[in-house]
Design a protein that fits this description.
The protein has helices spanning 10-24, 29-50, 102-113, 117-129, 133-147, 166-174, and strands at 5-9, 72-77, 80-87, 90-95, 98-99, 161-165. By secondary structure, it is of the alpha+beta class. The strands form two sheets. A four-stranded antiparallel sheet has the order 2-3-4-5. A two-stranded antiparallel ribbon has the order 1-6. It is globular.
């Protein structure tokens, strides 16, 4: 019998969803994992600043031309501009100027979702697959807002777990 819900906080949900979306946009799994982790980090930074948990940090402007090997460029994903670079292993999002390790993101997702990861991923893949890539790119974050776990508002919700309703994700794919 399929799982109906999973108790989890929003960060791994966003990371997994951004991974699925990036893959649907044409990135391979390892590239998508790093881009997703960066999106989640950018969102956490913004939310933390709005709650007074983090201080704003100064970001360097990104280059707007085709990058050379090792040079930083920007990938648009879920309404964020993710710094990335082309490495020998493909595109990798960067954090603090260093490529993110896709294996660490994979371990993070496995640790947060445990045995539910394949089922949650399948529900998200069905949703992503129900839209053409261009429409998915435009709607990905608003879809996430429709299925993300409900948590308390403000600082009380920081890191709090909520219920991820897999049937809700599946119904969005049908709709």
């Amino acid at each position: 019998m399929p799982t109906k819900s999973v108790m989890v906080n929003r960060a791994p949900v966003l990371t997994l969803w951004a991974t699925v979306v990036a893959q649907r946009m044409g990135f391979d799994e390892r590239e998508a994992l790093t881009l997703a982790k960066a999106v989640t980090g950018l969102n956490a930074q913004s939310k933390g600043q709005s709650l007074g948990i983090f201080q704003p940090r100064e970001d360097k402007p990104e280059k707007a031309r085709q990058p050379e090997a090792g040079e930083t460029f920007v990938v648009a994903l879920l309404g964020r501009h993710v710094p990335a670079e082309r490495t020998e292993d493909g595109v990798r999002a960067t954090a603090d100027g260093k490529p993110i390790d896709p294996a660490s993101v994979r371990r993070y997702l496995q640790g947060k979702f445990g045995e539910n990861l394949p089922e949650v991923r399948a529900a998200m893949q069905a949703l992503a697959g129900s839209l053409v890539p261009q429409e998915l790119a435009a709607r990905a974050y608003s879809l996430y807002e429709q299925f993300r776990p409900d948590i308390p508002a403000g600082k009380r919700g920081w890191g709090a777990q909520g219920e991820l309703d897999l049937q809700r994700i599946r119904s969005l794919a049908k709709g």
